[in-house]
Design goal:
This is FAD-dependent oxidoreductase. With 475 residues, the protein is an alpha/beta fold. The chain has two domains: 209 residues, FAD/NAD(P)-binding domain (3-Layer(bba) Sandwich), CATH 3.50.50; 252 residues, Polyamine Oxidase, Chain A, domain 2 (Alpha-Beta Complex). The chain is 35% helix and 16% strand. It contains 18 helices and 16 strands. The strands form four sheets. Strands 7-6-12-13-14-11-15 form a seven-stranded mixed sheet, with helices on both faces. Strands 9-2-1-10-16 form a five-stranded parallel sheet, covered by helices on one side. Strand 1, helix 1 and strand 2 form a beta-alpha-beta unit. Helix 11 packs across helix 12.
Length: 475
């Protein structure tokens, strides 16, 4: 029987392993931690019964993942839940940019900018299921739906600040900037609109969903799918040298490029090893988990019903914070993202005490304490929040890296969102998953299409592995 070893049990490693097992391979997954999941883990971090997500929290790009559909994760227990309001970007005057599931309803709330917003997003959102096969895969290939992809891709090369000129109101520009800022890139750089447009189109198609029972439910459903197809999982197995990896017909590595360079050392061609060692890392996240009695007292009413809230202020303020972070400076007013998953999934709360997840964009390797900066942003748009916080835990960039080596320096995206990375992965190559070692493939979020719980990096690597074996993937 053809054998496969997968090293690393994040969402990409799990997806790759499950798909290979589904294709008939004898698959073993090795995970260094005591449980699988990587960024898709959850825990009772503060109080019994109060469930917090470790990293990945809201999943607008994951619900329609072609790989997860092929694995039928609903059959393995995954349930998606949606809040009343997808995302809100409050402003100091009490107004806000508001994202609803419907493009039409969102456009209505944007007033004079509504028609332009609708023209920008409606075609891609309407056809997202078909479009996702091309967007959530290697870009350097013949697309399945070239006309749809061309329509979606036309504005993606624009800097986010330039695309913002499409809108005339402060709230529309701020709403757009907050979504574009998910890339952790300066908003003035080329292709700064790509990730934001993808998030918006996917969100309007499927909603900004959360997994019932925490993001850990995504990992658990993938593990069940893997086991259902005969695969095995071994946790607590840390691989530091390639000699520790059992022999197999194919090996897939859910490891960041620097780890691959260390594990395989001189076995890698010099040019590949150096490319992996020089791989550019991105900015970091500093996260605060909060236990909040009665929830956050937002000034804006929409924010009280929203699963996700962006605290960034105006377009100019968000752009300045992104420039500071990219330059290695801690912003005076950092961009903060707040998730209120319990609004869609009430089982995460403990009575009237609710879990609130918040993180700030900070420089790579930042060793300061951003807790007060995050609380200050909350107080700006929700006065009285501090009085409702009953417990708090901070996770620094070093804390993220300790929990998951792929997050070196607190870089939860596993690399800077540069154009070469989006096109080629960790090095220029026709097959972005190939390490050039026969039968050895990279499947971390450093490969296309990039970060997220969608598992499509793992799916792409699994497809390359099957083609190496002379088989044809069917997803």
């Amino acid at each position: 029987m053809t054998t496969a070893i997968v090293v690393g049990g994040g969402p990409n490693g799990l997806t790759a392993a499950a798909l290979l097992a589904r294709a008939g391979l004898d698959v073993t997954l090795l995970e260094a931690a005591d449980e699988v999941g990587g960024g898709t883990r959850s825990q009772e971090a503060l109080l019994p019964g109060l469930l917090h997500d470790h990293c990945s929290a809201v999943h607008s790009m994951t619900v329609a993942s072609p790989a997860h559909k092929a694995l039928d994760l609903a059959r393995h227990g995954l349930r998606w839940r949606l809040p009343d309001v997808d995302c809100v970007h409050p402003l100091d005057d009490g107004t806000a940019g508001v994202l609803l599931r419907s493009v039409k309803d969102t456009a209505r709330l944007l007033g004079p900018d509504g028609p332009r917003y609708r023209r920008l997003l409606e075609p891609s959102a309407r056809h997202w299921e078909a479009l996702s096969h091309d967007v959530l895969g290697p870009l350097l290939r013949v697309p399945s739906h070239p006309l749809l992809l061309a329509r979606f891709g036309l504005p993606t090369p624009l800097p986010a600040t330039l695309l913002a000129r499409l809108f005339s109101t402060t709230r529309a520009r701020a709403l757009w900037a907050g979504v574009a800022a998910h890339s952790f890139r300066p908003l003035s750089e080329p292709f700064g609109s790509a990730i934001g447009l993808g998030i918006l189109a996917a969100g309007h198609a499927t909603g900004w969903a959360v997994a019932e029972g925490g993001s850990q439910a995504i990992a658990r459903s993938l593990e069940r799918a893997l086991r259902a197809h005969g695969g095995r999982v071994h946790t607590g197995v840390r691989i530091t040298r390639h000699t520790q990896i059992p022999p197999a017909d194919v090996t897939l590595l859910d490891l960041d490029p620097a780890q691959i360079a260390r594990v395989y050392g001189d076995r890698l061609p010099t040019r590949v090893r150096r490319a992996y060692q020089r791989y550019r890392r991105g900015p970091a996240a500093f996260k605060v988990d909060l236990a909040v009695e009665q929830g956050v007292p937002w000034t804006n009413a929409h924010a009280r019903r929203s699963g996700f809230v962006h605290l960034g202020g105006t377009l100019a303020e968000i752009a300045q914070a992104a420039r500071d972070v990219d330059d290695g400076r801690m912003p005076e007013r950092p961009f903060v993202l707040v998730a209120q998953q319990y609004l869609a999934d009430p089982g995460r709360s403990a009575g009237d005490v609710h879990p609130v997840w918040a993180y700030a964009h900070v420089p790579h390797g930042y060793d300061g304490d951003a807790t007060e900066a995050i609380l200050g942003r909350l107080e700006r748009f929700a006065p009285g929040t501090r009085d409702r916080v009953t417990a708090l835990r901070a996770t620094s960039p070093a804390g993220f890296a300790a929990a998951n080596p792929n997050f070196a320096g607190g870089d939860i995206l596993t690399g800077a969102s540069t154009v070469p990375r989006l096109l080629f992965g960790p090095r220029p190559a026709l097959d972005p998953y190939s390490t050039t070692l026969p039968g050895v493939f990279s499947c971390s979020a450093a490969t296309p299409p990039g970060p997220g719980a969608h598992g499509m990096c793992g799916a792409g690597a699994a497809a390359s592995a099957l083609r190496h074996l002379g088989a044809t993937p069917d997803w």
